């Protein structure tokens, strides 16, 4: 039976919990589909899936460095309010696309003062140890097109 390795397209169901056991995210109905070996999913989870077969279930704990990275205080920045031209109302929790040295990035508004906005560019799950319950649903060979694109196509994958 096929096992998970580079250039396989893998479908799996998952439940993601934080350290306190609260469910943060889960696959609803349709499994998540990814191309193995193409960094489509976080490194800690991809590593844990190597060699697994259809029907296997696993519990994986992923440390921040193998997940969404450590929380970086440098990613929290104060920016002048006039950079938000055309936005009438800004409040904590709002998300904006920002052009950074690393390309387009989502930043979350943390605080608002009269002259400036404090934004946080950390991933919402940065610095967190993550617990995944995973069940492998399907494993197949990637098509040549999927390999050239670096992601899975079809149900649960990219459509274009
Ligand atoms: Zn594609």
Properties at a glance:
about 160 residues; mainly beta; Chitinase A, domain 3; Thrombin, subunit H; 2 domains; 2 helices
What does this structure look like?
The protein is mainly beta. The protein folds into two domains: 8-68 and 126-149, Roll (Chitinase A, domain 3); 73-120, Thrombin, subunit H, CATH 2.40.10. Helix content is 8%, strand content 39%. The chain contains two helices and nine strands, in the order βββαββββββα. Strands 1, 2, 3, 4 and 9 form a five-stranded antiparallel sheet that branches. A four-stranded antiparallel sheet has the order 5-8-7-6, with no helix packed on it. Bound molecules: zinc ion. Zinc ion binds at residues 149, 151, 153, 158, 160.
Give a concise summary.
With 160 residues, the chain is mainly beta.
Radius of gyration: 19 Å
Number of strands: 9
Which stretches are low in confidence, meaning pLDDT under 50 for 5 or more residues running? none
Distance from N terminus to C terminus (CA atoms, Å) equals 31 Å
**Structure class:** mainly beta
In the CATH hierarchy, the third-tier topology of the largest domain is known as Chitinase A, domain 3
Largest sheet: 5 strands, antiparallel
CATH class of the largest domain: Alpha Beta
* Overall structural domain count: 2
Helix segment count? 2
Roughly what percent helix? Answer: under 10%
